[in-house]
Amino acid sequence: MSARRTELTRAAARLFAEKGYHGTSTADLAEALGVQKGSLYSHIESKAELLWEVAHEGAEAFHAALDAVPDEGPVVERIRAALRAHLRVVAEQLDVATVFVREWRYLEGEHRQRFLAERRRYEERFRVLFREGRELGELRTDLDDGTAALLALSAANWAYTWLRPGSDTDALADRFTALLLDGMRGYASR
Amino acid sequence: MSARRTELTRAAARLFAEKGYHGTSTADLAEALGVQKGSLYSHIESKAELLWEVAHEGAEAFHAALDAVPDEGPVVERIRAALRAHLRVVAEQLDVATVFVREWRYLEGEHRQRFLAERRRYEERFRVLFREGRELGELRTDLDDGTAALLALSAANWAYTWLRPGSDTDALADRFTALLLDGMRGYASR
DNA sequence: CCACCTTCCGAACGATCGTTAGCCTCTCGA
DNA sequence: TCGAGAGGCTAACGATCGTTCGGAAGGTGG
Predict the structure, then answer these.
(1) What is the mean pLDDT of residues B128-138?
(2) Which one of A139, A172, A188 has the shortest CB-CB distance to B184?
(3) Is the pLDDT confidence value at B190 over 70?
(4) Nearest nt (C1') to A43 (CA)?
(5) Chain centroid to CA A182: how far?
(6) Is B188 at the interface with chain A, CB within 8 A?
(7) Which of A16, B43, B82, B120 is deepest in the core (most CB within 10 A)?
(8) Is residue B34 less than 8 Å (CB to CB) from chain A?
(9) CB nearest B188 (choices: A130, A137, A147)
């Protein structure tokens, strides 16, 4: 992929995240490259192709980050690592993450199906951690692991709305993990 | 507001939630009423007015639900009640809640400012609960209440993506609350 | 019965949408 | 030195965008 083509993808990620897919025109994209809008079509076949590309890049980034999480060892540490990995991707590729979480739904046809499969698989990889944790006894044996995974994924998926580039995402993830593991209850309410 | 006008607002909520604000045309709205698109302008001054109306209705619904939460008594119970209230609104007014959480950002000018103020105030009402809980000792005295509120709000704000009308939102909220309060850690990892 | 108000129609507005076409001008390897 | 391909231009396409307008139904209250 040429340098110019890469530039276009980056601009698309930024603009789709900022103004939404339908709120971004080909004229906007062209202006970001300093070019006439017709010239975009030397690089792409359609605006929809850009959306797919950015959404797909998001899926790859999140999956790659999870790949670095060991699939053995204490579940508690793997949950922490998974949250760290997710938040790091959000902070380092905020535009792409935003498209991955919010704009993907404007995908159509085949691309939409492929994206949804990747997204479901990602969430399942999270769920497995909590199920395994319960089964191994590292998490409470009476844990509702589905709800637990949903809570963790909610924190992960909502992060793009408040997380800013440059944040200490490891510390943030650790705070979430501590909360999820040990709860908030104090002595006075026990 | 006439019955017809109300119908238009409902259609707008449904379509904005389904296809996004910029993905919904005035022709779509007109078709939902079985009318020519020009006829909409007997009822409204602009499409943007509908977005404001739906977003504002969402803000009112969420605030009204929180109003029913007592401002005294055990903080733990008030957190549970607040989560119940929020999830109930999401399930009972899913379209409006979706616009409140996701589509509001296409508001412009004055309306955008007013909405943001309402939204910030809503989140602040949540945050207060956790701060107060820590100060009163009902929650752990070493609690990071900002992160705690963020975690709860993440679960609340993400709910529109998975919650379906007719769910038992009270039970769902209680499961979240139990998790938030007592955590997931099991004996084996302590 | 008439005057009014609400609602809708049909047609059109200028603007903008995503996309296509033909042509020009570089750059670079053969 | 020449040919080719990459990348840009201008211009235009038909479609659709949100919105406006004048007029015509239809019901309601005086």
Answers:
(1) 96
(2) A139
(3) no
(4) D7
(5) 25
(6) yes
(7) A16
(8) no
(9) A137
Does residue A189 carry a pLDDT above 80? no
Token pair of A134 as six digits: 């319960």
CB B176 within 8 A of CB A147: yes
A33 touches strand D (CB under 7 A): yes
Q: How far apart are CA A61 and CA A58, in angstroms?
A: 5
Q: How confident is the model at residue B13 (pLDDT cuts 50, 70, 90)?
A: very high
Residue A139, SS3 per DSSP = strand
Is B111 near strand D, with its CB below 7 A from some atom of it?
A: no
> Quick one: closest CA in A to B107, which residue?
A19
State residue A138 phi and psi, 5-degree precision: -75, -30
Does A176 contact chain B (CB < 8 Å)?
yes
d(CA B159, CA A177): 20
Q: What is the pLDDT of residues A36-93, one digit of tens each?
A: 999 999 999 999 999 999 999 999 999 999 999 999 999 999 999 999 999 999 999 9
Gap between the Cα atoms of A92 and A12, Å rounded: 16
**Which percentage of chain B shows pLDDT scores above 90?**
97
| Least Cα separation, residue B153 to chain A (angstroms) | 8
Question: Given CB atoms, is A75 within the 8 Å cutoff of chain B?
Answer: yes
CA distances from B134 to A187, A190, B121, B155, B164 (A): 11, 14, 20, 20, 33
| Cα A179 from Cα B143, distance rounded (Å) | 9
The Cα-based distances of B22 to A61, A180, B3, B48, B109 in angstroms read 28, 37, 25, 10, 17
Q: Is the CB of B45 under 7 A from strand D?
A: yes
Distances (CA, A) of A113 to A11, A107, A117, A127, B56: 25, 9, 6, 21, 34
Coil vs helix vs strand at A63 = helix
- Mind listing the pLDDT tens digit for each residue in B96-125? 999 999 999 999 999 999 999 999 999 999
Q: Do the Cβ atoms of A187 and B137 come within 8 Å?
A: yes
**CA of B2 and C1' of D27: distance in angstroms?**
15
